[in-house]
Design goal:
This protein has helices at about 10-15, 20-25, 30, 35-45, 60-70, 85-95, 125-130, 145-160, and strands at about 50-55, 75-80, 100-105, 120, 165-170, 180-185, 195-200. By secondary structure, the chain is α/β, with parallel strands linked by helices. Strand 1, helix 5 (about 60-70) and strand 2 form a beta-alpha-beta unit. Helix 4 packs across helix 5. The longest helix has 17 residues, at about 145-160. The structure holds S-adenosylmethionine (SAM). S-adenosylmethionine binds near residues 58 and 150.
Length: about 210
């Protein structure tokens, strides 16, 4: 269990963030998962060897690279809409010799989620809602209507996921997990900062507006 004190950024984050391009270093404390959180989330997501975890909206790869180093027997795949961030993530993983973190370029909602045992979300769609002042950069068109579409589509995919699927959210993906998921752990206890949800019953029907 990690404590409230380590749910923020630390010296380890400074060391890690030094490896990012300067423009991303200044965004890291708001947009990328702190090292201590990534380590804890990795253990919640992948408790057994061979598990495959998808980071929905992986940015420059901070979560996946830290998580993959923490749990070397599992695979962490990041999918990211911004191609320049995918390039940074691949370079980072190569430079740090982390072979079990890989990165895909594209929209997470166009991937086949059935290949994964667990999903990680650090507020991937919030930019759409919060507009330019919160944006990671100016390279993505932002539309509040997309927020609702992405969140609804995420719930629909999680509702179809197999029994035992694990979901960790750091500050949510914009909505609660669908029915059928049980809240197994919160960290720090009693808060909604970091949550582990496990699918333990069939989910109700969720509708994806794009399907
Ligand atoms: C808050 S950052 C989190 C980065 C990383 N997961 C971490 O925790 O360090 C969210 C990222 O999600 C990406 N994103 C937003 N919508 C997406 C989508 N539909 N498919 C793939 N990536 C998306 C954004 O471009 C941004 O880089």
């Amino acid at each position: 269990m990690i404590s409230q004190a380590v749910l923020g950024t630390s010296d380890e984050d400074e060391v890690f963030d030094d490896q990012l391009p300067r423009k991303m270093q200044i965004k890291s404390s708001v947009h990328f998962t702190p090292v201590s959180v990534a380590r804890h989330a990795a253990r919640l997501l992948a408790p057994r060897p061979g598990m495959r975890v998808l980071d929905v909206g992986s940015g420059p790869g901070k979560f996946c690279v830290v998580a993959a180093s923490e749990v070397p027997g599992c695979t962490f795949v990041g999918v990211e809409l911004r191609p320049h961030l995918v390039r940074v993530a691949r370079q980072l993983a190569a430079r740090m010799s982390v072979a079990n973190a890989t990165f895909l370029d594209g929209d997470a909602l166009e991937l086949d989620w059935s290949e994964y045992d667990a999903f990680y979300f650090y507020n991937p769609f919030a930019e759409q809602l919060n507009g330019k002042s919160f944006a990671l950069d100016s390279k993505m068109e932002l539309m509040p209507s997309k927020f609702l579409r992405y969140v609804t589509a995420t719930r629909e995919r999680l509702a179809r996921a197999r029994m035992g699927t694990r979901v960790v959210t750091y500050h949510s993906f914009g909505a609660p997990a669908p029915t059928g998921y049980e809240l197994a752990e919160t960290c720090p206890a009693g808060t909604d900062h970091l949550e582990l949800w496990i699918k333990s019953a069939e989910s109700g029907v969720e509708t994806d507006p794009d399907r």
